[in-house]
Amino acid sequence: MAITLKNPELIRSTPFINGEWYQSKSSKSFDVTDPATGELIITLPDQTEEEIDEAIRLTHTAFHDFKKLSVYERSKCLRKLHDLMIENLDDLARIITWENGKCMADSIGEIKYAASYFEWFAEEAKRMYGHTIQPTNQNNKVLTFKQPVGVVGLLCPFNFPSAMGARKLAPAFAAGCTTILKPDGQTPLSSLALAYLADKAGFPKGTFNVVVVSVDHTPMCGLKFCESSLISKISFTGSTPVGKLLMGQSALTLKKLSMELGGNAPVIIFDDADLDLAVDQAIASKFRSLGQTCVCANRIYVHAKIYDEFANRFAAKVEQFKIGNGFEEGVTHGCLINDRAIAKVEDHIADAVSKGAKAIVKGGRLLELGPHFYKPAVLINVTPDMKVCHEETFGPLGALIKFETKEEVLEYCNDTPFGLSSYVFTKDLNTVWYMSEWLQSGMVSVNTGLFTDAALPFGGVKESGFGREGSLYGIDDYTVIKSVTLGNIYM
Ligand SMILES: NC(=O)c1ccc[n+]([C@@H]2O[C@H](COP(=O)([O-])OP(=O)(O)OC[C@H]3O[C@@H](n4cnc5c(N)ncnc54)[C@H](O)[C@@H]3O)[C@@H](O)[C@H]2O)c1
Ligand SMILES: O=CCCC(=O)O
Question: 113-161 pLDDT, tens per residue?
């Protein structure tokens, strides 16, 4: 099914390099398909090593002029891009639903969320403050400047095809860095549409480049970024194993890195929680983008006193989901991205059931809807020895685990190498404080399942990575501090 857009020019079929829609000479190409139908959306050139090198070189050349552009000019471009995204909201959301499969309501939410990073960093661009410091020698003064780190390579995943790129591009541009973005080979159209709008917003030539490569050639592109001495920093969002690989590959050029990696988010529901709120919010967290969100609830710990009641209400709500093509009216949840994603959900369910879990909502493929549709599942009697407690499912499986005390549940929650986000539901301030203090995660969300925002410092601890995106801290990852000493000053 081809989609119609108010502005068909938003669909691009070539990379965007140095301010131009680049005519690739590659003899290879790759198909982007609609995960809901399996139908072809577009065929793109699979860029070669030489073309990636050339794109890096041009991004580097652009850096020297760009750093001279005033922060006020950078701020205006960012603000304009925000406005253009909102003007093109419906078209951009349709592109996400087409290439990613999430429902239109989620896609519209994603575009507003992505645009909000440009608005936020349009303001932050003006706030790259330095310090004046008094060193031990009274006749010297130290000044600090925040300077752009240089060329930044942005490697983005499929699950938020617009927002993950926006969350990197906006602070990088605000700081005065030039960027080269490689979108996921399954969902490249949103990034190309962003490049089209950035160009219209006045981003100078070469400051925002998008290269395209197939899923198969992605490791080649990753290696090129990591090994290039012209790229100063890499910002990656994706799984922990790939993050580790990129970090190793970046060692030779000692790059600055931001790693937004996998999660295994626990949700803890205490017996004093507002149950209606907890059920609704746990559902919102668990099934956002059908579970394909890095901060999605992965393990839901429910206090023994309210376990059965919570499980029944949770299951009843899941049964009400309307799964279908994301473009259809009334659909609450679309499809998963590919077969591998479904296989992981099936594996976690099979493992849990073989160890004693019981399905109170039986999940399963919905082949009558299309190749990647899956009815969400809810399991009770889940125990800490099951895979779902240790690995990120990244799909529509609600796993409910019983607990008795806060000390016990804290131990379960922290028993993982991951530490991205955690959720706590309770009315007791002491419990809120205790859990917020001791949960090993970069973000703790209390009494809400939806917390991400451009104003929030987003990022993990442990093997969920490092660096913070968004917020007043987000720009720091794209800057370096230069210290200037003024000597022999006499007053
Ligand atoms: N912390 C966050 O902000 C965040 C946000 C979204 C997703 N994620 C994580 O991402 C994972 C889901 O995404 P995925 O399955 O696509 O992850 P993935 O790591 O397989 O892929 C992520 C991206 O990296 C690319 N990639 C893969 N191998 C590469 C290589 N050798 N060099 C360069 N790029 C390479 C992929 O093509 C994709 O675009 C989950 O673990 C999820 O938690 C984290
Ligand atoms: O998937 C990860 C990002 C989700 C978000 O920023 O809300």
Answer: 999 999 999 999 999 999 999 999 999 999 999 999 999 999 999 999 9
With cut-offs at 50, 70 and 90, classify the pLDDT of residue 241. very high
Closest to 159 (Cα-Cα) out of 289, 296, 4, 326: 289
| pLDDT of 2 | 83
Token couple for 108:
């519209």
Burial class (CB in 10 A: 0-12, 13-18, 19+), 247: middle
> What was the pLDDT predicted at 68?
86
Q: Using CA atoms, how far apart are residues 115 and 110, in angstroms rounded to an integer? A: 8
Cβ of 222 less than 6 Å from ligand 1: yes
Task: Sort residue 38 into left (φ over 0), alpha (ψ -120 to 50) or beta.
Answer: left
Specify which residues 258 forms β-bridges with. 235
pLDDT in tens, 185-228: 999 999 999 999 999 999 999 999 999 999 999 999 999 999 99
Residues in the chain: 491
**175-193: b (≥16 Cβ within 10 Å) or e:** bbbbbbbbbbbbbbbbbbb
| DSSP-assigned letters across all residues of 267-291 | EEE-TTS-HHHHHHHHHHHHHGGGG
For the entire predicted model, the pTM comes to: 0.97
Catalytically annotated residues: 260
- CB atoms closer than 10 angstroms to residue 326: 26
Cα(299)–Cα(387) distance, rounded to whole angstroms? 11
278-328: per-residue pLDDT in tens?
Answer: 999 999 999 999 999 999 999 999 999 999 999 999 999 999 999 999 999
List pocket residues of ligand 2, CB cut-off 6 Å.
159-160, 293-295, 452, 458
Ligand 2 centre distance from Cα of residue 276 (Å): 24
Query: Residue 67 — pLDDT band, cuts 50, 70, 90?
Result: confident
Measure CA 259 to chain center.
11
Q: Is the pLDDT of residue 1 over 80?
A: no
Ordered strands of the 132-133 beta sheet = 132-133, 141-148, 479-486
Task: Share the mean pLDDT of the chain.
Answer: 98
Integer Cα distance of 41 and 34 in angstroms = 6
Complex ipTM value:
0.95
- Tell me the CA–centroid distance for residue 85 and ligand 2, in Å: 19
Quote the strand ranges of 280-354, DSSP E: 297-303
Which of 60-64's residues contact partners 24+ apart within 8 Å by CB, and which partners? 60/150, 60/151, 60/178, 60/230, 60/231, 61/206, 62/18, 62/178, 62/204, 62/205, 62/206, 62/207, 63/148, 63/150, 63/151, 63/177, 63/178
Q: Is 469 in the pocket of ligand 1 (CB under 6 A)?
A: no
Domains of the chain listed by start with CATH number: 8-261+466-482 (3.40.605.10), 265-453 (3.40.309.10)
